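2024-03-11 09:14:02 DEBUG pipeline.ingest accepted 1 chain
2024-03-11 09:14:02 DEBUG pipeline.ingest length=74
2024-03-11 09:14:03 DEBUG pipeline.predict start
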Amino acid sequence: MHKEAERIYRELGTPEGLAYSLANQALLLAGKMGRPREALPLVEEAHRLATEHGLHAVAKQIKPMLDLVRRRQP
C-alpha cells in the first residue's frame, strides 16, 4: 500500500505526500521489520524533499526518524 502511495505521489509531483509516504515506509522497515539499511535511503529522501520544498514542519517531524534509523545502522 505504501509503495502504491509513493508511486502516486511521485506521479502527481506532491512532495509533502511523498515525504510522508517514504518516512512511513522507512519506519516500518527499520522498526517493525528490523531492516534499517533499507530504511535509510527512504528516510533520507523524505527529509531532503521536505527541506528542499520548504516543508519545515514536515522536515521537523521526519528528522527524529532519520536520526533513529541512522543510529540503527550496523
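2024-03-11 09:14:41 DEBUG pipeline.report The chain has a mean pLDDT of 94.
2024-03-11 09:14:41 DEBUG pipeline.predict end
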